Amino acid sequence: MKVMIMGMDGYLGWPLSMHLSSRGHEVSGVDNLSRRKNVNETGSWSATPIKTMNERRIRYKEVSGKDLTFYRGDLVEPSFTDLVVKKEMPDCIVHLGEIPSAPYSMIDVDHCNYTQNNNIIGNNNILFAMKDHVPNCHLLKLGTMGEYGTPNLDIPEGFFEIEYRGRKDKLPYPRQPGSWYHLAKVHETWNIMFANKIWGLRATDVMQGVVHGVLTDDMETDDLITRFDFDEVWGTAINRFCAQAVVGHDVTPYGKGGQTRGYLALRDSMQCFTLAVENPPDETEYRVFNQFDETYSVNALAEIVSKVAKEYDLEGKIRNIPNPRLEAEKHRYEPDMKHLPALGFKPKFNLEDELRITLPKLIEYKDRIEAKRDKIKPKIFWSQ
Ligand code: NAD
Ligand code: USQ
């Protein structure tokens, strides 16, 4: 299958490119390298020293014998997006090419608008390029579990049956996102559903939980490793807890620590994406997958990181700190996850297993975390 990966240079895009290529797919990709630039802007860096796209592709060719085609450019430019889709004529587009940080989008009006413009317009440009050149192509789009927010109800996969004033219908489940970033994802969901309705474009909208881990089977050497961020803007709680433990910083759940999310190991996320790519929706179908494995509160996450860290003689002292975000700190979280298991998804790596791979790798790069220690403390406040 010809698969085009938007966001090829990213945390997920790079391992997925290698993974799909190793399964025999013909892989091309796009990236404007903005993630690297935006992390530089906040003064931080990846704990793992990542190679340039050219170095990565050359090294991958050396170890696998396979080529990865790469286009450097901005999906927000309609003519660029149109051109690359027309040139490649993919069977599947995996769209990961967005700004993924909630805190970044909350810095100020410029960062909110940059995130929303980048993500919503880039996504629209892909939809129009698909309609014009590859109307049968499958769009595998990365949304987020955070689109749903934390309702006091179970969370289905995209749609639910509702009865109102004696009538029944199947409707999109209410979205209650908690940041400008998460809101952009909701707007994109509506745009994809609309493109599906008017043009019949087929799409899988993936509501993904937080992905953790840093290594996949295709990373034969650290020249092929993916990025791992730990600062307040780009690091997710789990990455931050690992990095904090490695440099002897307190592990910092925010607030009461009851904030619960879905988690998935990077290597299991490869399995999910592969199943979705290789089992496309019917022509003209729009489907939603919730994609995660385990759910944890951030307090529970901190406890597990701390426990595994002790196996490596790290203290992992936990200290709840004032929450810079506005969010429920104790809430129900019962999302469904049925569609991927129905396609054969079997998670292989639980959180503790994955931590026993991540922590030793981070210990190798302890000096790089130490060098940016001042970027760990949160300074972006949701309510200001
Ligand atoms: P990432 O920032 O590492 O990767 C995104 C890549 O897209 C980057 O390399 C970036 O340079 C590129 N990009 C951004 N805007 C672009 C544009 N306009 N044109 C071309 N390239 C552009 O992020 P990630 O963690 O790999 O996440 C990938 C996707 O998955 C995002 O949409 C994110 O919201 C979603 N997601 C991620 C997670 C997670 O835990 N990592 C969880 C849920 C959803
Ligand atoms: N948190 C802490 N301590 C920290 C950092 C965060 O307790 O040091 C808390 C946050 O307050 C929040 C929870 O951890 O309640 C999750 O925050 P996060 O930074 O780990 O993740 P989030 O901002 O939700 O975003 C991440 C990815 C994003 C993806 C999303 C999936 O960056 O791309 O969309 O996870 S989900 O969380 O399901 O919406």
List the helices and strands and how they pair.
Layout: E1 2-6, H1 13-22, E2 26-31, H2 34-41, H3 53-64, E3 69-72, H4 78-88, E4 92-95, H5 102-105, H6 109-133, E5 138-144, E6 159-164, E7 167-172, H7 180-199, E8 202-208, E9 210-212, H8 237-246, E10 260-265, H9 266-278, E11 286-291, E12 294-297, H10 298-310, H11 339-343, H12 351-364, H13 366-371
Parallel strand pairs: 1-2, 1-4, 2-3, 4-5, 5-8, 8-11, 9-10
Antiparallel strand pairs: 6-7, 10-12
Description of the molecule:
The chain is an alpha/beta fold and 384 residues long. The protein has a single domain, classed as 3-Layer(aba) Sandwich (Rossmann fold), CATH 3.40.50.720. It has 13 helices and 12 strands. A 7-stranded parallel sheet has the order 3-2-1-4-5-8-11, sandwiched between helices. Strands 9-10-12 form a 3-stranded mixed sheet. It has a two-stranded antiparallel sheet with strand order 6-7. It is globular and about 55 Å long. The relative contact order is 0.15. The mean pLDDT is 98. Bound molecules: nicotinamide-adenine-dinucleotide and sulfoquinovose-uridine-C1,5'-diphosphate. Nicotinamide-adenine-dinucleotide (NAD) binds next to strand 2, helix 2, helix 6, strand 5 and strand 9.
